[in-house]
Amino acid sequence: MPIDHVIDHEHRLVRARVSGVMTDDEVFNYQTTVWSRPDVLGYDELVDMSEVTSIALPSLKRIHDLAMLSVEKDQSGRVAKFAIVAPGDVSYMMARLYKAIRGATKGSHRTIGVFHTLPEALRFLGLEG
User: Fold this and answer.
1) Per-domain residue ranges for the chain?
2) Which residues contact 109 (CB under 8 A, 6 or more apart)?
3) Residue 95 exposed, middle or buried by CB count within 10 Å (0-12, 13-18, 19+)
4) Using an 8 Å Cβ cutoff, are 90 and 61 in contact?
5) C-alpha 103 chain-centroid distance
6) Which of 50, 66, 123, 128 has the fewest beta carbons under 10 Å from its own?
7) What's the whole-number mean pLDDT along residues 108-114?
8) The CATH fold of domain 4-124
9) What is the dihedral of CA 127, 83, 105, 36, to 10 degrees?
10) Half-sphere exposure of 29 (CA within 13 A, CB side)
11) What does the pLDDT average to over 70-95?
12) What is the rounded radius of gyration, in angstroms, for the C-alpha atoms of the chain?
């Protein structure tokens, strides 16, 4: 299933929801399609993996490749926030690995938080309530 996303221009936020089997093709397509749009550069991001039933990423190298692609899409000059909701053990571990790789990459302009619940992620983004 494709990754559903909504662009909230008022709050400068891209909100994505992943459900079912998460594949690398869908993740790379989302990253390339959404983050190539000039109207969302510098926006915060929320990816909710609460409805993911399994993750079909073929290798750790693909997580590294995704992190590199993500950094390429970052807008310099503004550090945006990126919250990942990953309640499952595997999704949480993979999100933490992605965070570590992306955070250690020169040129990254995102502060990333990985959370078990949506309310935690919304607080991190300053969108609670």
Assistant:
1) 4-124
2) 71, 74, 75, 76, 77, 78, 79, 80
3) buried
4) no
5) 13
6) 128
7) 89
8) Transcription Regulator spoIIAA (3.30.750)
9) -80
10) 11
11) 84
12) 13
pTM: 0.89
The number of beta carbons lying within 10 Å of the beta carbon of residue 53 is 9
Going by their DSSP bridges, the two strands 4-8 and 110-115 should be labelled as: unpaired
What span, in angstroms and rounded, lies between the C-alpha atoms of 102 and 113? 12
Residue with tokens 């949506």: 118
Does residue 55 contact residue 22 with C-beta atoms inside 8 Å? Answer: yes
Concatenated DSSP letters for 46-91?
A: EEEEEEEEEEE---HHHHHHHHHHHHHHPPTT--EEEEEE--SHHH
